Amino acid sequence: MAHSDRPNPETVILENGDLAATAEQVIAAIEAQGMMHETQVHQPLYTVEEAKQVNYDKPGVHTKNLFLRNKKGRMFLLVVEQDQHINLKGLRDQLELTGGQLSFASTERLLTYLGVVPGSVSPLAVINDHSNKVQVYIEAALLEQEHIYLHPCRNTHTTRMRCDDLISLLDSWNHDVIRVDFR
Fold first, then answer.
1. Residue 54's pLDDT band (boundaries 50, 70, 90)?
2. Is the CB of residue 122 less than 8 Å from the CB of residue 150?
3. Half-sphere exposure of 24 (CA within 13 A, CB side)
4. Tally of CB atoms within 10 A around 148
5. Domains in the chain and their CATH numbers?
6. In principle, which of 2, 78, 157, 176 could form an S-S bond with 23, CB 3.0–4.6 Å?
7. pLDDT in tens, 60-106
8. What is the tens place of the pLDDT at every residue in 105-116?
9. What is the DSSP string of 139-179?
10. CA distance 99 to 68
């Protein structure tokens, strides 16, 4: 999908008929929990390679986020370190999933359940998954770091926050995180 062909993120309608959360709403939700964060505004970033070109002056781990589904239609968000190689054929067994092979979910599913356009996927997008249809998996090594960089539902913003705060925030949105060890 060409960047110009992507849906307007400001008009994304969720499964329940609500508008998807904006970056400002995600940031407000972080602040409402009393969590510290720093958010940088930049040009749209569609790939890990583009994100590597942005100067982030504080330490923190950068991620690659894969929105996946199995043949039975269950959806999964896999969050790994930006340079982690993922073999989808072996991932199903590693995650001990049933329901057929994993594949990338469609843009339509991404819009409906996470409320983001391609290039904006991150665990913060589960703010939009009110029906808890997306299971979140995060690489265990990421969570050993102090800080993590994530898009707050828009690829024009990058938010740095504490990893333990991310887990608490997802929990407050009724999303348990399953840790995955790729070592």
1. confident
2. yes
3. 1
4. 24
5. 16-180 (3.90.960.10)
6. 157
7. 999 999 999 999 999 999 999 999 999 888 898 888 888 888 999 99
8. 999 999 999 999
9. EHHHHTSSEEEE-SSSTTEEEEEEHHHHHHHHHHTT--EEE
10. 13
pLDDT in tens, 88-98: 888 988 888 88
Q: CA 68, CA 86: separation in Å to the nearest integer?
A: 12
The pLDDT value given to residue 53: 86
Residue that the structure tokens 């940088």 belong to: 40
* Crossing angle between the packed helical segments 163-172 and 23-32, to the nearest 10 degrees: 100
Cβ contacts of 19 within 8 Å, gap of 6 or more: 11, 12, 13
Of 68, 66, 89, 90, the closest CA to residue 79 belongs to 66
Gap between the Cα atoms of 88 and 158, Å rounded: 27
Residue 153 in tokens? 């539902």
Q: Is the pLDDT score of 18 beyond 70? A: yes
